[in-house]
Structure formats: C-alpha cells, structure tokens
Amino acid sequence: MSTVEEGHRSHRVKQLASTSLSEGQVVYSPVKSLWFLGMTGAAVVGGVLTISLPAVLLFACSTAGVLLLGHSLGSHRKLIHNSFQCPRWLEYTLVYCGVQVGLAGPLGLLRQHDLRDYAQRLPECHDFLRHGQTIRRDCWWQLNCELRLRKPPAIEIEPRIANDAFYRFLERTWMLQQLPWAVLLFVWGDWAFVVWGVCARVAACVFGHWLIGYFAHNHGEMNFEVQGAAVQGRNIRLMSLITMGECWHNNHHAFPGSARLGLADDEWDPGWWVLCGLNRLGLVNELRQPADLPERAELRPCLSASKARAVPQSRRSSPLQAIS
User: Which residues form the Fatty acid desaturase domain (predicted)?
Assistant: First the structure.
C-alpha cells in the first residue's frame, strides 16, 4: 500500500476495490446551471440599471464578509477540516454565513470537497476532480455540470454533522436562505441593494470560487509536493487578501488539517488573523498548525533556502506568536 493510500485511512471517503474515481461522465446539471446563470444575469443586467456607490459598497462588504467568516472559517476550516474548536453557536453562525456564499448546503459542500480532496491524492483521477481540462471547458463543467462516477465511493460523514438538525435544515433550504436577506435589503435600499447585495454577491462568490480553484490546481508556486498524488496544490501569492488566505492551496494540500494556511510571515492569511483575534477573546481554541498534525511520509519540501528557514519557524510558533 502506498503512502498516499495510508493517508486515506481516516478520510470520510471510503473507496472499495470496486470503486473508481477516474471513470465517469460529466453531465449538465439544470439546477446548478440555472442558479449560477440566473444570479449572474440578474447581477449584470440589474447591476447596470441600479449601480450606485452605496450598492457597490454593500456588494464589497457583504462579499468579503461571507467569504471570510462563512467560506474560509465556517465551511472550510471548521466544518470540513475541524482545524479549530469553538462554541456550537459560533460554529452555526459561521457555517450559516458559508451558506450565503451560494455554493451549496453545508452537507453537500462537505461531500463535494471531500470527494475532490480524496481523488486528488490518488495517482490518477477524473479531469473534473483535478481541474484537468482547458480553462474554458473547466469553467463550463464546474459552473454548469456535475460528475457522475460509474463506480462512486461511499462518503461517511460523522454523526455530529450528518445528524445535526440545523445543518440538515440548511441543506434542504440553502438556496432559500438568500430570500430573507433579499427582503431586508429591499426594505433598506430597494432593488439596487437586492441586486448588488444578493445576486452580484452570489455570482461573484461562485465564479471566484471556481476561478481560484482552477489556478490553485494548475498555476502557481509550490512549497511542498505530495508524492504519488494526481494533483499538486499551488499558491497564488497575489490573491491572499481577496481569498481570505485560501489562495495558499499548496500549503493546504500539504497540511489540510491546519487552521493556518499562510505558513510564512510574508504569506498573508486574513482567516488566520481573525482566528487569532477570536482566540484572544476566548471564543476559539485548539488552533491546529502543521506542527500539531501527524507526519506525512509522502510529503516532500520544494522550498527555496530562505523559505525553508521561514516555514519551520512559523510551524513552531504558538497561535498568537505566529503573526508578526
């Protein structure tokens, strides 16, 4: 058994001898496509007709808020990777903000992420799961289609998440969760705030999530190599603030359980900064860093001499000392 396969033993995806993550068909998904195209069409047409400084500021602030608190902290670092601990009310709040990104419900997003994560660690996987086609085709696939594997694996989500009543409610109603905010924004600022605060936000988040995902698996710097894996994550340095630190995807492939994604001092990670602030307030704890994770035999550094000196220092730092 290879070292990559050894690392799969504790994964939520359970692959049997009869399953395959490289054989399948990409098919059009009407609901997924109409959701994205509808939001995008409303944002483009409505945005031109209703553009104003307050509306654009609302778009910028609401988009940044749901990406930081919702997608990066709630959905990714907490729900999927459980890389820090916090009270249940705070976890629910962060995950609810993640639903506002407009990608999927919490359980659906977890399944999508874990299937892709598992597949990318194998020696080979389907192009849909590895962003392995041209940017134009990958854009069509990811935003309008779904992959139907011929022999899919089982995905076992732990009961704490799978049986949670709040998460199951959000999973059933994740699209409808935009409606209360649309009503409030209409009362506050008429149709301009609805278009920019809901439609433009969702369209930008969904499209941006795909675009960063494409480049983070095809172009950019590498600090580490996961030997035997079909896909290597890439760091996209110039996107650190816009992505709330999620652009350090090579670091994340190397240490998926780490709450800190930007490992060196010059790798800005707003999500980590917020977690450290919440830690100071006593709202989060047990912030995991690479030094807290099990060693991976398949992991190899591919760092410059200066970077090699910087990353281990950040790994040995405490959560609060790590910001400098």
Answer: 56-257
